[in-house]
Amino acid sequence: MILKSPPGLEQAFQKLHELVYYPLIHKEKFVHLNLDPPKGILLHGPPGVGKSMLVQMVAKQLDLKVIYIYSSKIQSPHLGETEKNLKEKFDLAEQISSDKNIPTILFIDEIDAIAPSRDDSSTHETRIISQLLTLMDGIKKRKNVVVVGATNRPNSIDSALRRPGRLEREVAIELPNRIARLGILDFYLCKMNMKTDFLDKNELVSSTTGYVGADLLALCREAGMHALNRTFHSKSKLDNLELLENVDTSQHQIILNLDDFRYALNVVVPAAKREHVLDLEPVKWSDVGGLEKIQKEVEKAIEWPLKYREKMMSLGARPPVGILLYGPPGCSKTTVAKIIATEYTNFVASDNKNNASDLGGTASFFAVSSAMIFSPYVGDSEMFIRGIFTKARVVAPSVIFFDELDTITGSRDETSTDEVQKRVLSTLLNEMDGISTLPSSNTKHYHTDVNQNTKIDTESNVNKSVLVVGATNRPDKIDSALLRRGRFDKLLYLPCPDYNARKQILKTKLRNIPSTLDQNCSTEIDLDVLAEKTKNFSGADISNLCMEAALIALRRNKSLTAVVDMNDFISALDVVDASITKEQLDFYEKIKDNF
After folding, report:
1. Which helix (DSSP H) or strand (DSSP E) does residue 469 occupy?
2. Sign of the CA dihedral 188, 392, 259, 257?
3. For the whole prediction, is pTM greater than 0.85?
4. How many CB atoms lie within 10 A of CB 379?
5. Could you give the domains of the chain?
6. What letter does residue 100 receive in the DSSP assignment?
7. For position 275, what pLDDT does the model report?
8. pLDDT tens digits for 283-334?
């Protein structure tokens, strides 16, 4: 028999095929050997990886009947109704397999929703689990039935289901590696009936690390729609039907190129990153002023490993594992994180043409705050930390940004640090140590997803990096273990802007405000004077000053021709003060000297 497996799922298909084929098609061999064939299989992997499709294709090739059990369709709020619905499905499988002599797969999708761990279950859920266990035990009497359960959270289902005689065999579906993604893309592109002669598939595959089959299908669809819009020179996005009515598909007149996929990559978020996407406003280095020194350090930490990693490794120059941004409030720490997300990663949609030639030259960006981490349930916070690092490794090169790091980890030297913070700190230390010990050879490497109990093939990522960026106003509250080499080994101090930096920030802010800057008039804005008068102002303070000056100008002249002049800034200085005191600045300077 020639097996035709889905693209990118060859190994999982082969294993599932064997586990279903022998018990249902050659059950007499088990009888002869006096062996009990496996009656239950647990299929697990990330969402969208192809679990349901795998079952369908195995059933189709073996000519098996599939009976589907969906949580949303059998669950009922009425007492005993869900248990009854479950039993009816099992009885139907027995009827088809026995009366009609048709081998049958009983497929339970999202089985974790039907049978969650009884440690966290209500009385109603416990009754459902008990019924399912009873029905599973009865499978031994049903000679031509195999139960297949699918989940993306195998550790969340009740442990009794994974015992021998129930879901005793497991098939893990890994995230597709580079070769698998190429096969999946080829499969979908061939079906699109578009010209792909000018499409560099190798470059495209490099930019889709962490994408599963469903993500790649959505990516191809989005790129195809963009190609249609581009072909017809549409100024506004047309709907699918209107586009398709005008397409002469027989002539292959639609050309699909990398620009279409560049657009699609900014729209389609892969499953590995979907849970940690935040809406950050795009910010570029050119949008801010006074950060030239910080820009050089960030470029060395992020851009150099992306462009020159092999050269750095050959010289023994290992990229930093972590960067800690610290300094007074309002001095652009979070802004630098937004710039990282915009300039160096594929996290924020951007039409920056400078990066258009290199799809593979960007990193993935994950933003984490304390509100996302802390949970009232024991172990959830640590699981979240492990999960974010797992996903970051899978889609490496990547950047994980922890805002207000001191509130997340605390310091073990502080008596006020609670137990949750201590456990989160311990988990973070372990995960960062895992980054620093990633192998640098090109050997095949596996990482186990602690949330999914799934081995993830990261052979294409062992030469790539995960960079952790933390931001804090209180570096003295950060545990000293985090500041050791191999963890946050790059400490960047963002001080209050000096005279030249304040002048540059003012000039940058005034680019977007109608003003008398450089107009050679009596009320011309004098940046030198303003820079002198804003000593100890943070970047945020200067932004507030510009906003206040604009409001004063608006009160003075409510017409569309209103402009901000020097007098408006002088008035604004009477309202806006520096938010950082000299004592605070001395405090940060002392910390910098100690670091």
Report:
1. strand 466-472
2. negative
3. no
4. 10
5. 9-172 (3.40.50.300), 178-236+253-272 (1.10.8.60), 285-411+419-436+463-493 (3.40.50.300), 499-579 (1.10.8.60)
6. S
7. 57
8. 888 888 888 888 998 888 878 877 787 788 788 777 788 899 999 998 988 8
